[in-house]
Amino acid sequence: MLKIENVVAGYGHITALKSINLEVPQGSIVSLIGANGAGKSTTMRSIMGLVKPTEGRITFEGKDITSMKTHDIVKAGISLVPEGRQILQDMSVYENLEMGAYIRKDAEINDDIKKVFKRFPILDERSYQLGGTLSGGQQQMLAIGRALMARPKLLLLDEPSMGLAPLVVNEIFEVIKEISAEGTTVLLVEQNVRQALKIADYAYVLETGKIVLSGPAEEIRHDPRVMEAYLGGRVE
Ligand code: ATP
Fold this sequence. Notes:
alpha/beta, 10 helices, single chain, 26% strand, 4-stranded antiparallel sheet, Rossmann fold, 6-stranded mixed sheet, binds adenosine-5'-triphosphate
């Protein structure tokens, strides 16, 4: 569904991605793992057209999206839950969700907001509350809900578990599994490698701008290098 081929990208003279290749098959959960500064967010930004690759190609459903504008990429069916949630602090929960549908003009926007409220009842209870007053977990739910409002075929999640309490992390991972089971393809960037590899079908390991390992998540989970570097030496 998504194919990244030989992509080089960065910021000025900093090359954050040094020719990476990555594929996300339709219906799968693909996890991208790696340490701080490895280039995970830059990969997500490149897919969304927020960073322009200097080399290589990104295709989505066979269509070249490398030089497309972000709103056209969202229209094509890709939506990002950004690192740090980036919800609109001074807008209500409801308004944040409406913002997620900014590319749409159909009559079903309110129905979709109701669906988000069904998935996250706490957001329904707090629909008039300002985004900035929500807890971290609730803000993450709102960021996911907002991304779903664009009706994505492919959902990109950039470190959704960051800074959340363990119980809330479990809840977020359950939600990602549900979204996947309902038919949305998922690309998940995570530093919570243990949980990410449990729910993923495939995984890629990124180190200083290069993919150093890839394969079925179950294999990656048992790879001695991954166990040593990311799992504290044990799988469970
Ligand atoms: P993190 O988990 O810390 O976000 P990451 O794997 O997502 O890490 P990136 O944010 O993609 O890594 O960063 C890759 C490299 O690009 C790093 O060397 C980082 O310092 C650099 N970088 C990221 N954003 C910018 C920016 N806006 N301007 C300049 N350099 C940047």
